[in-house]
User: Which sequence fits this backbone?
């Protein structure tokens, strides 16, 4: 069986039975295609029966030699693990070589987040825009990310009907893992969205955030907008859209929100992912030491 052939059935399974998002399926498609290409380039047959633990280890070694990060190597191996798990479930294979290969250990990094002052600077920079409607749109986008903790894809997927300003709720459809969640809408986020809706042009679609040409915003559109805004603030290097999600989580934890509640707000499948936010900076540690009962 050619890997490309069984992979086509696998993608249908991901869509029809697992409910994975198009972006997730495309990521699997890319990773499996790259694996097949490497097999051919190294003289291996891209057939399911030809894949052994040794072949997979050579694949990991080749990626390491190419300078790919541990997280990228682990993700590509996970794609193959998912494919072989499907093959086992469908009784197409009896042996799973992925079970005998360990994923590269990823270096755990503390989430990067903004201070309250930096958040204020970022929002203030939205006003420095030649187009008034875009100033309101950009502010609404950043406020929703800061106050609701959405992922980039979740924000771009928002539709007009997902925002209920009367009930003060925000519906996030098919977040990571294909799950949806209904969030209480923060007051400031509700106001920012309401302001934007007064400026939003009439469109033949229901995307919440649109371009000046009335098209749904794309990943490139929002990335360009964010980079322009960050540049105007002079914020430090390394600030990304995902930094705002980290900021949301960090600030809620500092206000006493428990990890289980934060997990639900962020839409994490695993509590271990949420636990990454249980970090403290030097000042937090200094304060804790200062409260030692021995003085």
Assistant:
């Amino acid at each position: 069986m050619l890997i490309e052939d069984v992979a086509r059935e696998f993608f249908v399974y991901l869509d029809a039975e697992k409910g994975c998002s198009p972006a997730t399926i495309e990521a699997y498609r890319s990773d499996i295609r790259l694996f097949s290409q490497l097999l051919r380039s190294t003289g291996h047959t891209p057939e399911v029966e030809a894949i052994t633990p040794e072949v997979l280890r050579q694949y990991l070694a080749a990626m390491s030699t190419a300078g790919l990060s541990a997280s990228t190597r682990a993700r590509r191996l996970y794609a193959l693990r998912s494919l072989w798990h499907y093959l086992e479930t469908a009784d197409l294979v009896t042996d799973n070589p992925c079970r005998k290969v360990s994923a590269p250990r990823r270096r755990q990094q503390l989430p990067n987040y903004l201070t309250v002052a930096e958040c204020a600077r970022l929002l203030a920079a939205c006003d420095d825009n030649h187009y008034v409607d875009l100033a309101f749109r950009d502010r609404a986008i950043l406020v929703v990310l800061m106050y609701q903790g959405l992922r980039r894809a979740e924000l771009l997927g928002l539709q007009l009907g997902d925002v209920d300003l009367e009930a003060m709720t925000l519906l996030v459809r098919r977040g990571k893992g294909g799950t949806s969640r209904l969030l209480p809408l923060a007051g400031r986020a509700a106001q920012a969205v309401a302001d934007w809706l007064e400026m939003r042009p009439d469109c033949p679609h229901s995307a919440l955030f649109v371009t000046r040409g009335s098209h749904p915003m794309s990943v490139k559109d929002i990335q360009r907008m964010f980079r322009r805004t960050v540049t105007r603030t002079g914020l430090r290097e390394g600030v990304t859209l995902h930094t705002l999600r980290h900021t949301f989580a960090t600030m809620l934890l500092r206000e006493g929100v428990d990890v289980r509640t934060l997990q639900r707000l962020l839409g994490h499948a695993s509590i271990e992912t949420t636990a990454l936010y249980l970090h403290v900076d030097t000042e937090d540690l200094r304060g804790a030491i200062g409260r030692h009962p021995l003085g």
Notes: Residues 116-284 form a domain with the hpI Integrase; Chain A fold (CATH 1.10.443.10). The mean pLDDT is 87. The beta strands are 163-164, 169-172, 181-184. The chain has two domains: 3-100, 116-284.
